[in-house]
Design goal:
Elements (H helix, E strand, L loop, with lengths): L3 H14 L4 E6 L6 H10 L13 H5 L1 H4 L5 E8 L12 E2 L8 H20 L4 E4 L7 H7 L4 E2 L5 E2 L7 E8 L18 H5 L5 E3 L2 E2 L5 H7 L15 E3 L3 H4 L26 H5 L3 H7 L9 H13 L1
Parallel strand pairs: 3-10
Antiparallel strand pairs: 1-2, 2-7, 4-7, 5-6, 8-9
Helix pairs in contact: 1-5
Amino acid sequence: MDNKSNRTKLIKKEAKRLGFLSCGISKAAFLEEEAPRLEKWLNHSMNGKMQYMENHFDKRLDPTKLVEGSKSVISLLLNYFPSEVQKFDSFKLSKYAYGTDYHFVIKDKLKSLLNFIQDEIGEVHGRAFVDSAPVLDKAWAAKSGLGWIGKHSNLLTQQVGSFYFIAELIIDLDLEYDSVTTDHCGTCTACIDACPTQAITEPYVVDGSKCISYLTIELKENIPSEFKGKMDDWMFGCDVCQDVCPWNRFSKIHNEPLFNPHPELLSITKKDWEEITEATFKKVFKKSAVKRTKFEGLKRNIKFLNS
């Protein structure tokens, strides 16, 4: 198996078999266009208290500094759009957190894909990434032709919208590279107009320190009082900019059983959330990404929404 085209087809076919929505490949090289954008974003403190965003600036922009000898970045999308959502009278969770923590689900699939590449092609070295290292996931996915970065700064595709996770394999193998797709946001400003905290300060720029996802998950201190009454009942994450996006009319229901919610989750009411015990929290969110905010963090968010 020494033909670049055949290798590429083989990898994409296996990615599909493993359940990935799509697979795109780009050359592992310095992200020239992203460098000034990231620098400006950091200089304006739009990362809030996410100090880690300031670390490993070079590695964030150059995968060859992250994975020695790397030649290709394989970007993969995994759908998480649910078949049903929470009851209307509930504090809200971002849809991505309904089921099993995506880090575990995707890591297993990535390991399987890397093992497959090694078995079929030979000695290939690389690393798997699921938003837990200095990798600009959305930039690589866009560079790999999987979609364009929308005005809300999420990756968008015409076929299935934006409710999917992005992951990468960075490997030391030459492959055929995909070309960038075009932007189809046009004159639409639905996401900008709908953002409850005006976090989208201009098209394609999100002030992370104002984003509800940041305030309810990343921020460990008290939520600033200026956001009182502006959180739209979101207690963990926020989907507003995706929910209003016209392209998400084309979202398709996922087929990953591990992303199905805990049986009790969708029927929990506001009153139930207000009275939630640590035992219930541990039961409902046993393997969930919600564990990241911890019981006390979720209680803080609910208390803030009620204040």
